[in-house]
Design brief:
The protein is of the alpha+beta class. It folds into two domains: about 5-65, 2-Layer Sandwich (Ribosomal Protein S8, Chain: A, domain 1); about 70-125, Dna Ligase, domain 1, CATH 3.30.1490. It has helices at about 5-15, 30-40, 110-115; strands at about 20-25, 45-50, 55-60, 60, 65, 70, 80, 95-100, 105, 120-125. The strands form three sheets. Strands 6, 7, 8, 9 and 10 form a five-stranded antiparallel β-sheet that branches. Strands 1-3-2 form a three-stranded antiparallel β-sheet, covered by helices on one side. Strands 4-5 form a two-stranded antiparallel ribbon. Strand 2 (about 45-50) and strand 3 form a beta hairpin. It is globular and about 40 Å long.
Length: about 120
């Protein structure tokens, strides 16, 4: 099972229906992705409910969701890695690429500034 894909699909489906929050099974990696989504303004907030779950409060502009699209890049059967100069941009900088680097989970812009490469987790716009 790809738990990151499940997280992204849960967010996408919840926004399609207009839900306010979505509950996700807890893992450190998924929590780090939620932190980046909040910092970049794609979600309102996240909160740890129990040692096994956390909730993401979704963000809308009027009735439109702030997340236009999500795409999982690296999959369990096919891992994608990029050096710092090969990190792709999303919609000319309007979206965000999330990477897992040796220094932790971060956006593509942060990784380029620090001169790091890593595994491409997903892109969000």
């Amino acid at each position: 099972m790809d738990t990151i894909s499940n997280m992204l699909i849960s967010i996408k489906n919840a926004q399609a229906v207009g839900k306010e929050t979505v509950e996700i099974p807890y893992s450190k990696l998924k929590l780090e992705i939620a932190k980046i989504l909040k910092k970049e303004g794609f979600i309102d907030d996240y909160k740890i409910i129990s040692p096994f779950k956390f909730a993401i409060k979704l963000k809308y502009k009027g009735k439109e969701p702030c997340i236009g699209g999500l795409q999982r890049l690296s999959k369990p059967g096919r891992r994608l890695y990029a050096k710092n100069k090969e990190i792709p941009s999303v919609l000319g900088g309007l979206g965000v690429v999330i990477l897992s680097t040796p220094k932790g989970v971060m956006t593509g812009k942060e990784a380029k500034k620090k001169g790091l490469g890593g595994e491409l987790i997903c892109k969000i716009w």
